[in-house]
Amino acid sequence: MSRDVLVVGETLIDWVPERPGPLATVAGFERRPGGAPANVAVALARLENPPLFWTRVGDDPFGRYLEGTLADHGLPDRFVERDAAAKTALAFVTHDESGDRKFTFYRDGTADTRLEPGRIDDATLSDCDWVHAGGVTLSSGPAREATLDVLERAAAADCTVSFDPNFRAELWADGETFARVVGDALAHVDMCFATVAELEALGFSGETPTAVARATVDGSGTHAVFVTRGEEGALAVAADDAPWPAAAVDHPGFAVETVDTTGAGDAFVAGAIIALREGRGLEDTVAFANAVAATATTAPGAMTALPTRDEVAPLLADESD
Hints:
By secondary structure, the chain is of the alpha/beta class. It comes from Natrinema pallidum.
């Protein structure tokens, strides 16, 4: 793993409620660093593989707080941009008694929507063997073109490209635009990480989650699709020409005391990237990624709950006993 990983996407402030319930009834919130790609980048660093991270925050107190947080986690600041003309994005999180959550975004013209094409040069991509991006920056602004540009050039540079659509309906003009733009992105993607609902929003269908994943592999041209299923674990389906003997894997996940599911999917992505870059097979990859995700749900917040390898190890050890 001598070459770099590059993660692309938003960094924002998650406002986490003091208790479960609808947003209108919650009086207090705690500030937490967030954004799905930011969570993936920090999760990779926590798992001992700090990536390059291309993101953009406002020149405001929240942006400076996020810059400091990323630095504290060992992420290089080479592509962490500060925008003097825009604010940092905010997301208010609500969750129910089971830990499931919803987001309300304040993101109109914020810094993360203003990523500019060409910022990641060809020399940087030639030093990377993996590029990962999220779908939120595809939803609006010049960040859409910038994200599509870096995915296309990463694929041309022979990087492994992974993608998480991270569908948030309120950020998109309509479902048709989401499906069209993300479809354009998938043309450059080797691996897609998604929920069944996200894959269905992209137009793929099937009678089972595995069938939906298979339809996505066959219809999008990706080499593998990983489907996260919350407490039911995750599955993966690979194309016939993928380099794994198992074409489909379904892992039931791990039973843990769940506190907050925010960031669990991002933890899964980071775990899968680590495992695949280490040369693990599809079955071991899904198990390791599930263990990372499950451990991340045992503490509140997203970035603040991301685990180290030592914290993940007990779940894997229990499974092997």
